[in-house]
Amino acid sequence: MSTASDSGAQRRGKAPAGERVADWADGRLGVYSLAKANMRKIFPDHWSFMLGEVCLYSFIVIILTGVYLTLFFHPSMEEVTYHGPYVPMQGVKMSEAFASTLDISFEVRGGLLIRQIHHWAALVFLCGMFTHMMRVFFTGAFRKPREINWLFGFLLFFLGMMTGFTGYSLPDDLLSGTGLRFIEGVFLSIPVVGTYISMFVFGGEFPGMDLIPRLYPVHVLLLPGIMLGLLVAHLILVFYHKHTQYPGAGKTEKNVVGMPLLPVYMAKAGGFFFLVFGVIAVLSAVATINPVWTIGPYRPDQVSTGAQPDWYMGFAEGLVRVMPGWEITAWGHTLVLGVFIPIVLFPLVLFAIGLYPFIESWITGDKREHHILDRPRNAPTRTAFGVAWLTAYFIMLVGGGNDLWATHFQLSINAITWFVRIGFFVGPVVAFIVTKRICLGLQRRDKDKVLHGRETGIIKRLPHGEFIEVHEPLSQEQLHTLTQHDQPDPYEIGPAVDENGVKQKIKPSQKLRSKLSKGYYGEDNVIPKPTREEYHEITSGHGHH
Ligand code: HEM
Ligand code: HEM
């Protein structure tokens, strides 16, 4: 018996192979309607939107190279004696993990390159996430409806840091062992339960025999698995919300101006993947990273000088290094504040970043959807916060490498420590004030440009002898870009007494919110946009240039 679809297939008997495969897939997965709905989706274009892609592609490179490394890496702390080709280590006792890392570097074909690509890709990945996060922050792309996606992204950043840390702890070299010793100190500084946690994690006294076999599944499976799930959710949300766009002519909160996903964006993205992969591969081929054979295997009685964590852990390292070594001893127990305060501060700072979108919308009371990005100068307080945070981060990075700064620049380590201690409190405040002034200055400049046009640099002499500079009026597109932004009023508490004469109870949180809101939108924090009347008055010829 022949069915309708059979006869359809007969009619298309001569259809090209590709079409037949597509038909086959459509019959089972409904790909046509899926593709029709999504493949022409429009993506706005801007170089800064490539930063998310850098994260994506470096993550793929990490997974590909990580799988290759698992084929040769032995996550074991059993002691072996080295007899491999690296002569300086002949006869040295080391863990199997360290010996297999040496094997990967010197005996496995392409092993060293793959190890280096894995490590460089991890550095690029975290750097990409950091910069992508800054792009999202400074342009306000985290505002409604993208707060949850910011949260997913933030978790990716946090887990990325943890995965990187567990990764560079695996080779069991002197550097990674020193890092793990640091973690032991962190556990031990936790009051009451610290010793138990440390014993539980290390399976007894540090370092024990269990640590590397335990870290291994966490590094290759657990954390990357969670990250993969979050990443898919992150990208689905980018797709679902549609991408934001920079302000410009023809762009509104209700449309998306850009190029279709297929073929233009896909082609660009495919090419960009190979570019990212290529750059990481070249870096890995020419720049040594983590040469564990020069560092040597971990021995608890040794510490190498110049020990540095990877850059993303530098903030935490810096906090611990510059913190005064305070201790409180009571009832036979010691509370090591010198370590405990930094390890509480570190997650608190991270937590504040994760919750920032919710904090800002509470302060400003802004519950509207935003698909047009802010120009950072038009949100001076947010921009200033971001720069203050970056300043604190980089000052702590100096603290985390205080020994290297001292040896490289012939400086006293105490002087650097004091510089970082003072800088941590003063630097962000100065950065905040300066950034805010710059933003307001730029807003003034925008206002000036709208009202008086662009300075052309052409000086003319008028018949009566006066010199003037010729100003060129802006195009309609430029005028739109410079004036499209909102300037909302700050949150007001409302009258203390209502219309019936009843005293309103004002909560302290309302007072705080009103104060903070003035800090965002108050008089001193915005330069009012030129009004229509001002513009017409000046451009109708009465203005004097
Ligand atoms: C594995 C790491 C990550 C990957 C692969 C990734 C990927 C992407 C991609 C491809 C986009 C669209 C293109 C773009 O705007 O750059 C995007 C957008 C976004 N990402 Fe990420 N991201 C990651 C981490 C983060 C982090 C750490 C944050 C913030 C804490 C974040 C927050 C966002 C937000 C809010 C958007 C929407 C932006 C918009 O529509 O303008 N992402 N992400
Ligand atoms: C975000 C994800 C990841 C990051 C940031 C990361 C980072 C790192 C880093 C920095 C190292 C130290 C490399 C060295 O210099 O020796 C490392 C080692 C390692 N990673 Fe990953 N990794 C990630 C995911 C993975 C995955 C998914 C796998 C496996 C499927 C994997 C397998 C390994 C193995 C086997 C080692 C030890 C080999 C060695 O150190 O030479 N990694 N990882």
Automatic annotation (TrEMBL):
Necessary cofactors: heme
InterPro entries for the chain: Cyt_b/b6_N (IPR005797), Cytb/b6-like_sf (IPR027387), Di-haem_cyt_TM (IPR016174)
GO molecular function, one term: metal ion binding
Keyword Nucleus: no
Domain of life per record: Bacteria
Transmembrane segments: 49-73, 117-138, 150-170, 182-203, 215-240, 269-290, 335-359, 379-398, 418-435
EC code(s) of this entry: 7.1.1.8
A Pfam family assignment: Cytochrom_B_N_2
Domain Cytochrome b/b6 N-terminal region profile: 21-247
Region (Disordered): 523-545
Keyword Cell membrane found: yes
Record key words, sorted: Cell membrane, Electron transport, Heme, Iron, Membrane, Metal-binding, Respiratory chain, Translocase, Transmembrane, Transmembrane helix, Transport
Compositionally biased intervals (Basic and acidic residues): 530-539
Range of residues in the leader sequence: none
UniProt cross-references to PANTHER family, sorted A to Z: CYTOCHROME B
Name of the protein described by the UniProt record: Cytochrome bc1 complex cytochrome b subunit
Lineage summary: Bacteria, Bacillati, Actinomycetota, Actinomycetes, Kitasatosporales
